[in-house]
Automatic annotation (TrEMBL):
GO terms for cellular component: endomembrane system. It comes from Alicyclobacillus acidocaldarius subsp. acidocaldarius (strain ATCC 27009 / DSM 446 / BCRC 14685 / JCM 5260 / KCTC 1825 / NBRC 15652 / NCIMB 11725 / NRRL B-14509 / 104-IA) (Bacillus acidocaldarius). It is a multi-pass membrane protein. GO terms for molecular function: DNA binding. The lineage of its organism: Bacteria, Bacillati, Bacillota, Bacilli, Bacillales. Signal peptide: none annotated. Residues 9-63 form the HTH cro/C1-type domain. It is found in: Endomembrane system. CDD domains: HTH_XRE. This is Transcriptional regulator, XRE family. InterPro entries: Cro/C1-type_HTH, DUF1232, Lambda_DNA-bd_dom_sf. Gene3D superfamilies: lambda repressor-like DNA-binding domains.
């Protein structure tokens, strides 16, 4: 029985008067691999799915949904149990463990970027790249508001240098980190960036708490 992904791809091929061989040429993926993947005989490769979607002129999310991937249709919050369960399913599918594992990986990246933010190269990179990349993204709600706020606070001359480094780590994560989840799996694709912004806020809160405790003890 023809699967939903296979049916969708073959319908799009007919609509565009394309053969499977032409699709293979356009994507750089062999006919055999495409056939096995869309028929469910081998695991869906997200990069291949994106290439096939581009060649067929449809959003990658269309094929991701047809493949039955455990996608999230709306941004998740801390109390969205059902959607967090679905997100864990997606992360497991992608070989990324779960949300806790993802947070651990993001924390490691933020620590690395905080060190980079202390260099002239890191500060120059933010100055040259941030506004251009930020302008490419629209309408992602809380994630963008957090990102804009972090950049605004980073840019203020009265922001303490230790806090500026933490803020810069979040900006550099947005600019440099390899996305754990493909961005086209919107809004799930921005989950790691959103978590990074949340963790920047948590790190700022801890830093200020340590300062307050130091002031009280002096």
């Amino acid at each position: 029985m023809m699967g939903h992904l296979e049916e969708t791809v073959k319908s799009l091929l007919r609509r565009r008067s394309m053969s499977m061989r032409q699709l293979a040429t356009a994507t750089g993926i062999s006919v055999s691999t495409i056939s096995k993947m869309i028929a469910g005989k081998q695991r869906v490769n997200l990069d291949y799915l994106r290439r096939i979607a581009d060649a067929l002129g449809v959003p990658p999310l269309t094929l991701a949904e047809a493949a039955g991937l455990p996608l999230i249709k709306e941004p998740i919050g801390p109390t969205d149990g059902d959607r967090q369960t679905s997100m864990n399913a997606l992360l497991e599918y992608l070989g990324l463990g779960n949300l806790n594992v993802l947070r651990t990986e993001i924390e490691r990246e933020l620590e690395k970027y905080e060190a980079y933010a202390q260099t002239e190269e890191g500060r120059q990179f933010i100055a040259e790249k941030y506004l251009a990349k930020r302008g490419q993204i629209q309408g992602i709600g809380d994630f963008l508001r957090d990102l804009d706020d972090i950049y605004d606070r980073f840019s203020r001359p009265d922001t303490p240098e230790d806090e500026r480094r933490i803020l810069a780590s979040g900006i550099l994560y947005f600019l440099l980190a390899t996305d754990a989840i493909p961005d086209y799996l919107f809004p799930a694709g921005y989950l790691d960036d959103a978590i990074a912004m949340q963790m920047v806020r948590e790190r700022l809160a801890r830093r200020r708490e340590m300062k307050d405790q130091g002031a009280e003890g002096s």
